Amino acid sequence: MHFKDILARLHDGRHLQVADWQMNAGEFWAITGTNGSGKTVLSLLAAERVVLSKGTADNLPVNVSYVSLEAQAEQIETERKEDESDLNDSADKGTLIRDFLAPVEDVEAWVEKLGIRHLLDSGFRALSTGESRKVLLINALRERPDLLVLDEPLEGLDQTSRAALSEALDQLQAEGQAILWVANRLDELPSWISHVAFMHDAQLLYQGTKEDVLAQPELQGLMHFDRPLPDFPPAPRERLQLEDGDPLVGMKNVSISYDGRELFSELNWRVEPGVHWAIQGPNGCGKTSLLQLITGDNPQCYRNDLKLFGIQRGSGETIWDIKKHIGLVSASLQWEYRATTNVLSTVISGLYDSIGLYQSTGDDDKVLALQWLDIIGLRDKANKSLQHLSYGEQRLVLIARALIKQPPLLILDEPCQGLDDPSRMLVLAFINRLAEQKEITLLYVTHHPTEIPDVIDHRLLFTAADGRSTIEVTGV
């Protein structure tokens, strides 16, 4: 493939610029760079999914399979649009995985490698983030395309799945499958990557062999977070006051089941103020379902014994009585945040626990939101549409949205998903500071154990077998 004098308009109004870039047979390229730099758009050139304002693209592959966080969000949105639950007066599962991957016989090996056989009769909408990612990966791999474009393929996968997918991709590469890898995490580049294209501010800044490009001093500077962490603005509301002995979260003999299948049962768990928890476990074990009991986004919260922020669930409280005490960052929130809104309004909406902003706000709210945008380095995009930002930039905005009210309970479900190295270092610095101060209590979900701050010494560990999870509480 050969791209010359490329100019293509990006969603945020900038133009992608590529003077000359050529990928030859036998070369295995990775595209990396900073958040919002144009990595994903550059990879889309190969699939002819970008309209060129100028330039030429020659010798493009005929059959391209593409996997990305953005494509995953698009599929989930398609499933939602086709939801007929209201018409049928019953829950619509969505496309069955068996049908989505049909004929399953063609992908048997991948079904086994990524451990999704127990999901074949589940609906796509019922899958966890990691499970749906596995399904889309298998669907893309089935046809051995001329070019396989993998945009952050390991994001959202548990450790076992990452290892299995990496091994399988190593084998595909050895067999001659052409692969273009798009990466935020430099430490996850496969050993067989031979060449790297480095993007910054919508320009192809460096290209060449992996060793030469990664040794560039400017690249090292751009991919490293070395500025001091600014002080957080004052909390906009008074701190929650609990009765003596009341936890933030109290669960007694809690269970969750779907379609007659018990996900887990008899969970007894207390989250005390200032005591931080890491929640770990494989894809589909029930981590997100557990968190949705707390946020009120799982209707099974009403048939379980839950006490949140001093309120017994089912005692006449509203969902807003609960949500006002919670800040949330998750992939599902990012996919649900489809409201047409700009970045500033998105951050302000965290004060009102809404998806979008549907009420007038004062100058104090705007000033506070701009302070948080300064902290995450996106103040210059305050008036841009959220949907016109890259996936990683959207994630940073939602982190600011969760932090703006400095809630008693902050739920961080894979907060670093889609972030480049410096943004991830910034977010982890946030998490460390919050954990040390103990004014905000953290529930931190991650598949990367090395990213858990040492001060978080309590663990909720899920293990799964045959579609059912057991939970171990440690550190107490």
Describe the fold and architecture.
The relative contact order is 0.13. 30% of the residues lie in helices and 24% in strands. The protein is globular. It has 2 domains: 2-222, P-loop containing nucleotide triphosphate hydrolases (Rossmann fold), CATH 3.40.50.300; 249-474, P-loop containing nucleotide triphosphate hydrolases (Rossmann fold, 3-Layer(aba) Sandwich), CATH 3.40.50.300. The strands form 4 sheets. A 6-stranded mixed β-sheet has the order 5-6-7-3-8-9, with helices on both faces. A 6-stranded mixed β-sheet has the order 15-16-17-12-18-19, sandwiched between helices. It has 16 helices and 19 strands.
Strand order of the largest sheet: 5-6-7-3-8-9
> Can you count the beta strands?
19
Q: What's the CATH H-level homologous superfamily of the largest domain? A: P-loop containing nucleotide triphosphate hydrolases
Supply the number of helical segments. Answer: 16
Tell me about the biggest sheet?
A: 6 strands, mixed
CATH architecture of the largest domain: 3-Layer(aba) Sandwich
Question: How much of the sequence is in beta strands?
Answer: 15-25%
- Find the CATH topology of the largest domain: Rossmann fold
Mean of residue pLDDT values:
89
The CATH class of the largest domain is identified as Alpha Beta
**Sheet/helix structural class:** alpha/beta
Q: What low-confidence regions span 5 or more consecutive residues with pLDDT below 50? A: none
Ends apart, CA distance between termini: 57 Å
Share of helical residues: 25-40%
Shape: globular
Radius of gyration: 23 Å
Number of domains: 2
